[in-house]
Write a structure and sequence with these properties.
Two copies of one chain form a homodimer. Chain A is mainly alpha-helical and 165 residues long. Chain A is 81% helix and 0% strand. In chain A, helix 1 packs antiparallel against helix 2 and helix 3 runs antiparallel to helix 4. Chains A and B meet through helix 1, helix 3, helix 4 and helix 5 of A and helix 1, helix 3, helix 4 and helix 5 of B.
Chain lengths: 165, 165
């Protein structure tokens, strides 16, 4: 007997597991990034985002509850690649004035991954009638967008000027 | 003698090599994605983006010229992870009504990676005084944002409704 055909519900569930793992990996990576950088403003932005990320995981726990599945992640190759790239920059630019600019750019790539994923999940939650999940996902999406905007502001105002000095 | 400290110019160059490889990988992946999907509208969006991606590579060639370096890529772990994730969805949802929604979401994750990278490169090109590079990078950024917006529109209007039917 062939396996039951996969549905949008399955896709939603798979993508939820994917972003759950991504958030967990980010929670581990952010303190290392905060420790590595020289700019106090950038460090504080990373530290603030650690707290936010804990909130994102709690909201994802609730979304798993809404769809009646256990909260668990699965290997997310995209976030592994993004984090590996960030680690490479931290190593290669360790004693460089451009370190902060590099770490910041890696963080923005991660934010954009999350912005894309949460946007997708919101569209699907609407399609699937998981209306209780929508505001939870939307609140996190808003925080990811705000973090990205804060990082752009820091990049334009200080970090890059230091790096080019 | 210690190696010369790396500069923002080096970081710009490294990131240029990274996105150059990403664009090349995308150029290979897009026709496979176009072939896999069921929606004509989505297929046409992917096919249009193949042409645009060729233009992005030509613009990057010019940016390499501006900084006086040979146009070449380097391994980009982020794009490898993003493409691997997309391939996994194509395999797991091969005969599913949700296939298009999944492939589309993977394409949007790739677009967001590029949006982040081009945004970063523009900020750095400005800092470094590579003013001729800025409009080239900005034109590509605009096309990536438009592609992402088109994909969102297709997702909301047709693909997800098919998948949830």
């Amino acid at each position: 007997m062939p396996a039951k055909e996969k549905s949008l519900e399955d896709l939603f569930h798979e993508t939820l597991k994917d972003i759950y793992m991504a958030e967990k990996r980010i929670l581990t990576a952010l303190p290392k990034m905060a420790k590595a950088v020289n700019s106090d403003e950038l460090r504080q932005a990373f530290e603030k985002h650690v707290d936010e990320t804990e909130g994102h995981l709690e909201r994802l726990d609730k979304v798993f509850e809404i769809i009646g599945k256990p909260a668990k992640g699965k290997k997310c190759e995209a976030i592994e690649g993004l984090i590996a790239e960030g680690q490479e920059i931290m190593k290669d630019f360790k004693n460089s004035d451009a370190l902060d600019a590099g770490v910041l750019s890696g963080a923005q790539a991660v934010e954009h991954y999350e912005i894309s994923r949460y946007g997708t999940l919101i569209t699907w939650a609407n399609e699937l009638g998981h209306s209780d999940a929508v505001p939870l996902l939307a609140q996190t999406l808003e925080e990811e967008k705000n973090t990205d905007a804060t990082l752009t502001q820091i990049a334009e105002s200080t970090v890059n000027q230091q790096a080019a000095a």
